[in-house]
Amino acid sequence: MSFLNPLFLFGLAAAAVPILIHLFTRKRPREMAFPSLEFLAEVNRSEIRRLRLRQWLLLLLRTLAVAALALAMSRPALQGNTGLARGGSTTVVALVDQSGSMGATAAGGTLFGEARRAVEGLLATLGPEDELLLVPYDQGPHPASARPLADAGRLRAAVQGLTASARATDHARALEFAARSLAESHALNRELFWLSDFQATGFGPGGTGAVRAPDGPWARSRVYLMPLAPVSRANVGLTEAALAPTESGTARTIAGGAHGARAGDLSVEVRDLAADAELGRGYLAIPQDGEAATLLPLARLPERGGVALIPDDALPLDNRRVFAAGTAGTARVLVREDGPASPVRLALEAGAPASGLEVTAVDAAALTARIVGADVVVLDDLPRLGPIEQQAVLDFYRGGGGLLVVLGSHADPAFWNASLLGELGVGALGAMEPAATGAAWRLRRAVAGHPVLAGFPARPGEPLSTASFRSIRALGAGGVANPGGRAGAARAAGPARVLLEYDRARPALVEAPHALVFAAVLEPTASDFAVSGAFLPLLHQCVKVLARGTAAGSLVPGERYRAPAGTAAWRIEDEDGREVPCELVAEGGATRLTSAPLERPGLYRVLQGGTLRNTFAVNPAAQESDLAAVPDAALVRAFPPGRAEVLRPGADLARRVREARYGRELWAWFVIASLVLLVAEMIIARWGMGSGAPEPEPGAA
Questions:
Q1: What local confidence, expressed as pLDDT, does residue 322 receive?
Q2: What is the model's pTM?
Q3: Which domains does the chain have, with CATH numbers?
């Protein structure tokens, strides 16, 4: 037991007051002998003993009543476990998850709404000397102030200003920021309140295995984990939507991908955003806790872009996914090759005008001179790049240009692994791997519903799987989200992901931000892929997707759109026609339009005056659809023993926080005990008032 107001324990001295009153007011009776009353002596002695007992009992009740009242004022508490200093100021850091998954429905609205109400309740627990740092976070922390605040008005305004985002979750970065903030505090007491759904994907690949508190001031701090749970974690969300080419080369279908926690057919509706008209309907056959894709015939091409819709469920954010109709006008493609015309250039040039591509073959000098005006650069099985050429390609890529790298038999692994592949984060290029005698390597898709693979049906015997490779050059696993774990869950996390793979999970086509790397040997002696029916549409789709500004076909909230070079006069509008703030960035001798971070999912237009130059989509990160959470026990184990505990938000949060800090207060029980003792004293005192016998003082002879 501990006491929150220990100074009031000095009030126990007041319990001596009834005793002192008794001692100072006590009278010693004088004995007088009356022979005629001697026969009553024995009766009086018996009555005096009874009265003496009653007086001692009254004295005891009065003393205990005063002591109980003094103990109540000292606020005794049971099982206090914070170990924090009493009476000192407290610095509180409140981590509030505002990522896309916090938009999931809860009993009282959304998880984010519950978190905001919990923080409002937390403010009621602060003392006049306490201070709080409010830190909403998604991909990173966004503190509401530069330092902890003690001003109640400013704190309430900051809480009321909290808004949910559509960004992905990074718990680790937020926790590191909280640890630094607590370490910088000079307060005697330090507390961390962490409000989140504790989505497993927010801890990176592996989920629960990655939960670990950073080094910090945990020995002098207390951590309160406040998990928020949606009404259901069985969520299904669209993770991909894009136009796909048909055999004629014209986009007439849409591919939709979904990640879900339940099996069954899911209805999908496709609408034209500009005309608000239905384009097609179909179903996704979702496997248990897996991914699925389908091709939906469209009545016509959308004017600028469309939207795929599924019925509402636990997370409304991922039930809508927009897609762009593609680049308006012609995409300028530079193919850097050595020697005679390669299969890659020939495939890109075939039907290029009809498909909206302007393909130009260049050497090293021409690439350096013309790269500024390009939309996509293709590096076609080059042994290496010269220093000037390499820097030009890096400047182009870092400026937002689309990059397709084809690595075959001529590529020098030492050069590529030490240069561009490290920049892209796609893993290391390996040595040539021949297939077993009489066998061949086969391609297979590693993800469902990706725009690059949208035109290829996911079924046995598809063109992608019929091509054979007698030798391959696979990309290593360093930095690449390879298949594994829950179906497709690991592929969506990390700097790069595998789109196509060879047998035994050898990565073949790997996606990085606005870049694709294809490790494939295309010589007729090594494979028949270059003459297969899948080669031409795959290359065209790769280039067209890259020309839209990102390899995924859409940006995610928080990313910036980078227009091609020489676009100073362009501007960007969101789905509602509002202009997006942009800046002009000088790169490689040219000026490039770059947007501010894009937060709202939707379809965006890139305009030059009144002419539409491009459209692109912004969609929530796919990993936000997975609502699986890290178990409470794993979260507690991430911190030093005894420093963290789980605290469920609720209507009585203020009381529960105080109990968690100081233990369960018992003052009310002591007040009740004091009242009971006083009532008992009154009853016993009145019980003897009707007696005619004298009431001797306790201890009288």
A1: 92
A2: 0.69
A3: 2-80+666-687 (no CATH), 90-231+627-662 (3.40.50.410), 236-326+557-624 (no CATH), 331-547 (3.40.50.880)
